[in-house]
Amino acid sequence: MRRHLALFATATRYHLVEHARNRFAMFLVVLYIPTWVTLCYANVPDKPTPYRLRDTGRILAPPGNELTQISGAINAVTLITGFMMFAATFAGGRFDRRLVMAGYPRTHLALAKITSLALASAAVAAYATAVMWPAWPSRQPLLLATVLFGDAMTYGALGVIFGSLLRREVEGMFAMLMTSVIDIALQSPLANSGVDSAFVRFLPSWSAMQAAVTAGFSDDSVSAYLMVQLAWFTTTALLALLAFHHRTRNALPKAVRSPTAPLPHHDTRTTARRAADPR
Q1: Residue 59, CB half-sphere, CA atoms under 13 Å: how many?
Q2: Which of 67, 230, 66 has its CA nearest to residue 151?
């Protein structure tokens, strides 16, 4: 048991150090989040904007700048966690593969990735919630942070998928950016008049946007939206594990992989006969 804990702790520490060494990601967390949500709040009119909650049918009318600030926070949190996990997976792919080929358990490496993702998502979500607080106090700040955390976990898993499958860094960056832009842009009623369309409900951040607006401007429950977000994370996490398994598979020939494997059947019998007959 201690050995498994030591392996897990070592892998987790390695991933956290990799995130901490990503100075560009740290820059985005410290400066990009407050800058982006402040610009959203300051440059969008505060005219009431109708927003329909699909779970209850209730129509809220929050100020447009506050509603845009929520979508901006979701956009910033998801992009940053997605970039962090993509960069760590893409840059450390060869090292992870060598570790697995040397005997390091895949399970411990995968659990370490999930743990580092959870810690990074929690920190970024809490920071984004705190940054929005001076502009307007949300009705349910803890739930708002939980919603941001769930969506960040989903995009972090997407980052692992892109980092494991795509061969060039620019491809992963573009895929992550376009996924987030399309997803978040269609969630805002200011940018999309068809925000209630059936297609939008199948986007990764639909439940997060619904839950964030609910938590920010009402006292209603967000449990139904959190369950949808949990389903999204579970799906992307399973795909990320499959992609990670594919990335770290042993591509060496079987003869090289198993140096202690028995000789072919014919050679084995020949060797036995020679050993029995001293001539």
Answers
A1: 6
A2: 230
